[in-house]
Structure formats: structure tokens, C-alpha cells
Write a structure and sequence with these properties.
The structure is a single chain. This protein is 35% helix and 21% strand. It is of the alpha+beta class. Helix 2 (44-52) runs antiparallel to helix 4 and helix 6 packs across helix 8. The two termini are 15 Å apart.
């Protein structure tokens, strides 16, 4: 479609995001150094290529560039040697890791193969457990996993990106992350009316969440849309919504 002059093709990073989560109720994943080692040990670029033909945008936080709540963050470059050093510091040698993925979302199955290959270089043998989504939910909710991959979809307000997932009392905090400062900042963000202060609260919370690897963020998938060049005033939105309010179709343009 990129080569079709009659089509305008837009590839826009969405507000959705995909992530890995390590179960902090299980040793050694309760050690932040081990979680950080995993974050340094995975190749996001390869995961993006394998899961989306390269159309997704690798990201180390939840919120994509272009979103008004975005902040830059790039701590976790692909660095296997740094990962090995952190594992040595934590006293962790060769060991297995149970990774939970689901056929309901094939990208998790595809990414798991990349993750398994990456982590094998660290002496971690990834046992990929592929189940149907109902079983996946049961296993997540019961804490029967070392690591899982999933996405959050349809996020708009920054609270949607962080509270349920990373607050100690969050309804979707399956990884059992708990940090008093994150809790304080996320609680403050729910009541703060000053936009600048609120953005700073979420920026600080997001940085701690990523530094301590509550989630290991992978990428934002893209909204990919194409339309005739005779249509003006239309844009592909990060939330995937289709809006024609400002659009116009011009006669005599490409069919």
C-alpha cells in the first residue's frame, strides 16, 4: 500500500501497549536486580519486527510519543552483559522461567520465542506455556506464573495506564508490585486538578514503575489506516477512533 499513489497510508503509535510482568511473589523475581536483568536482556527491536512486521514502536514506558502525557525514558537498552552482571550481583545462576502466553493473542506466542532466545544467553531457560485465554486469566489471577506477556488496550487518561496495574491495591496488579511512593503519586493523580502538577505526578510514578520493573514495557502497536488521496482533513488517531468531522471528499481525486 505504501507504493500506491492513490492511497495515503498512516502508521501511528497507539495508546495500547504490550508488556512483560514478572511475578514478585516468586523468588528470585522479587529481587529488583533480577527483574532489571530481564529488562536489559530482551531485544525489543526483534520483538517489534516479529510481532508487527516492524510497524509497532518500541517503548520502555506505557505511553507513546505524541501523547500529551508522554515522557522520554530509555534506561533499558539491549545489553546482555549488563544483564549478566546484575544476575551475578543477585547471586542468580542458570535457572528455569515459566512464561505464560495465550493463543487468544498470537503476538504473545510469537514474542515468547524471541524472549526465550534472548534469555537463554543469560542462562535462563524459558518454558513457554501456551494456553487458551480463560486458562490464562485463571493462571494470572492465581499467581501461577513466573512471567507473562499481555497488553492494555483503550487507554486514554494516565490513570488508565498505571493505577489498576501498579498500585498496591490495584485490581490488575497480578505481579504483586508494591511501592509506597508510587501509591502516593497515583493516589494524588486521581484528585489533582492542576494539569502540570498531575503530569509531574504521573511522570515520577511511571519512572519508578519502569526503574523497578513492575512491568517490562515492550512496544506500542500502531494504528495502521489507509484512505484515498481525495479525502482531506482526516487523521489516524492514537486511540483508533474514526472521526470524519473535519474530513472532506474532493471530486475528481483518486477513486
Amino acid at each position: 500500500m505504501k507504493d500506491d499513489d492513490a492511497i495515503h497510508l498512516a502508521v501511528t503509535a497507539s495508546n495500547d501497549y504490550w508488556y512483560l510482568a514478572l511475578n514478585e511473589a516468586h523468588k528470585p523475581w522479587d529481587d529488583v536486580r533480577v527483574r532489571q536483568a530481564i529488562a536489559y536482556g530482551i531485544d525489543r527491536a526483534s520483538i517489534v519486527q516479529a510481532t508487527s512486521y516492524g510497524t509497532a514502536t518500541a517503548n520502555q514506558l506505557a505511553i507513546p510519543k505524541g501523547n500529551p502525557w508522554y515522557i522520554p525514558y530509555d534506561r533499558y537498552s539491549y545489553d546482555p552483559e549488563k544483564a549478566k552482571s546484575l544476575l551475578r550481583d543477585a547471586g542468580v545462576g542458570a535457572r528455569p522461567l515459566d512464561m505464560l502466553v495465550t493463543t487468544e493473542y498470537p503476538e504473545t506466542v510469537t514474542a515468547a520465542q524471541i524472549v526465550a532466545d534472548n534469555l537463554s544467553a543469560l542462562g535462563i531457560t524459558v518454558n513457554i506455556r501456551t494456553v487458551d485465554f480463560a486458562t490464562w486469566l485463571d493462571e494470572q489471577n492465581s499467581g501461577h506464573f513466573d512471567m507473562l506477556m499481555m497488553g492494555w488496550l483503550g487507554n486514554i487518561d494516565p490513570d488508565d495506564f498505571y493505577y489498576a496495574q501498579h498500585h498496591t491495591d490495584g485490581s490488575s496488579n497480578a505481579q504483586k508490585f508494591s511501592d509506597p511512593e508510587v501509591d502516593r503519586l497515583l493516589d494524588a493523580g486521581r484528585t489533582e486538578s492542576n494539569r502540570d502538577i498531575r503530569k509531574d505526578d504521573y511522570a515520577r510514578a511511571a519512572t519508578i514503575i519502569a526503574d523497578k520493573c513492575s512491568y517490562i514495557f515492550l512496544y506500542n502497536p500502531s494504528v495502521v489506516q489507509g484512505w484515498t488521496t481525495s479525502l482531506s482533513g482526516y487523521d489516524a488517531r492514537r486511540d483508533g477512533a474514526v472521526r470524519f468531522r473535519t474530513a472532506a471528499l474532493h471530486p475528481g481525486g483518486a477513486a
